[in-house]
Specification:
Blueprint (H helix, E strand, L loop, with lengths): L2 E7 L2 H13 L7 E6 L4 E5 L5 E5 L9 H13 L5 H11 L3 E7 L2 H12 L6 H8 L19 E6 L1 H5 L2 H6 L67 H5 L57 H14 L7 H16 L7 H15 L5 H16 L1
Helix pairs in contact: 2-3, 9-10, 10-12, 11-12
Length: about 375
């Protein structure tokens, strides 16, 4: 069963980047398509090879214009029962947005494509349509100069898959085994693997620089001064005096102290740089997926007749169809005979409700609950 992903972007750069990311991630060129509009009032498509075609949007008929072909493309994609989604996306192209579609064969692949496209900024198409004020109903509304600069992401199944019930989906593509043959169904479960890596979280850089600081000291200095004094003397000369009665000279020198400055270095402080290691525990939370195998008991004509009689008695008067309720009968009997075997209805009803609404987004539990319960009781009673 095919699954289709539709994303609307406000500019071609994001759309092209998303498309390139899909191709680089393993999606084939046949699975990816880019439809785009321009601010000149024309629309075009870019196929997976990158070629672009342009055609005017002034045609009055959808059958002959490019806008019409875009609308027919989205009508085929979403089905003809409700034109609202097709009109929204064709209107987005008409107004200059860029629509990227991805068609895959499995739901995990379309989910992977959605994760890749989400990185490039898509937003809600419903909010976009509300800004147009309902203009998307024709697919040819007047295009404003600036255009609408938003994008949307929608994951949808193709028309056939959306219209099929749970029971038809489970039966589609089933393998018929001959007598004596067997088939193994692998149960796959993801495991969470947690590792570690070093990252830079900052640090310290220490600089050393020279700083000059003025200092002053008081020093006492000594100086010598020679002085000469003449005194009058009147006395007879002695023999010693006569011995020195000759030419001679006497020198007497003056001395003084002056300041001598020397510097010596001393270590007055030290800065120690080092690292210490601390450890802490951190809780890592995530989700892992696994597959489950549901075993459905295939009922024959007797079971089908039984459920039809119950439908005619309880639901036919309300205008419903048996085809709408048949998956609910089958779902109840399947869950009772396989996954929830041996457990009571009251115990498992919340799980059944959540699972049903996940599998059948267009079918409410409150409407189908009694049919599911009847299928459950058919097996357990």
């Amino acid at each position: 069963m095919q699954h289709t992903l539709v994303a609307v972007f406000d500019n071609r750069t994001d759309a092209q980047s998303a498309m390139d990311e899909l191709l680089a991630s393993g999606f084939s060129r046949q699975e990816v398509r880019l439809s785009e509009g321009t601010t000149a009032g024309t629309t075009g498509t870019t196929d997976t090879l990158g070629t672009t075609g342009t055609t005017g949007s002034t045609a009055s008929s959808d059958d002959g214009s490019f806008t019409g072909s875009i609308k027919h493309f989205f009508s085929d994609l979403f089905g003809s029962d409700d034109d609202t989604p097709a009109n929204k996306y064709s209107e987005a192209v008409t107004r200059g947005s860029h629509v990227l579609t991805v068609v895959t064969a499995s739901e995990p692949e379309v989910e992977r494509a959605a994760d890749l496209i989400e990185r490039f900024g898509p937003v809600d198409i419903d909010e976009k349509a509300s800004q147009w004020g309902g203009a998307a109903s024709t697919g040819q509304a007047q295009y404003s100069g600036a255009g609408a600069q938003q994008s949307a992401l929608l994951s949808a199944q193709n028309t056939q898959g959306m219209q099929q019930g749970t029971q038809q989906t489970m039966q589609q593509g089933s393998q018929q085994l001959a007598t004596g043959e067997s088939a193994a169904i692998p149960i796959i479960q993801e495991e969470l693997q947690v590792g570690k890596r070093e990252v830079q979280r900052g640090g310290v850089r220490v600089f050393q620089r020279m700083v000059e600081t003025p200092v002053s000291e008081t020093v006492n200095l000594r100086e010598e001064h020679v002085h000469v004094e003449r005194r009058p003397v009147d006395q007879p000369a002695s023999s010693a005096d006569l011995a020195g009665f000759q030419e001679k000279s006497i020198e007497l020198r003056e001395t003084a102290e002056e300041v001598v400055v020397q510097k010596s270095a001393r270590i007055v402080e030290e800065v120690v740089i080092g690292k210490e290691v601390t450890s802490h525990q951190e809780q890592v939370s995530d989700t892992v997926r696994h597959t489950e195998v549901d075993v459905q008991q295939l009922g024959g004509q007797e079971n089908d007749l039984y459920y039809r009689n119950h439908f005619d008695t309880n639901y036919a008067t309300g205008g419903g169809r048996y085809e709408d309720y048949a998956p609910a009968y089958g779902y109840g009997s399947t869950m009772a005979s396989s996954q929830y075997r041996g457990r009571s209805w009251d115990e498992v009803e919340p799980n059944l409700r959540s699972d049903w609404e996940t599998r059948n987004p267009g079918s409410t539990w409150d409407k189908m609950k009694s049919a599911v319960r009847h299928g459950w009781d058919r097996v357990t009673s």
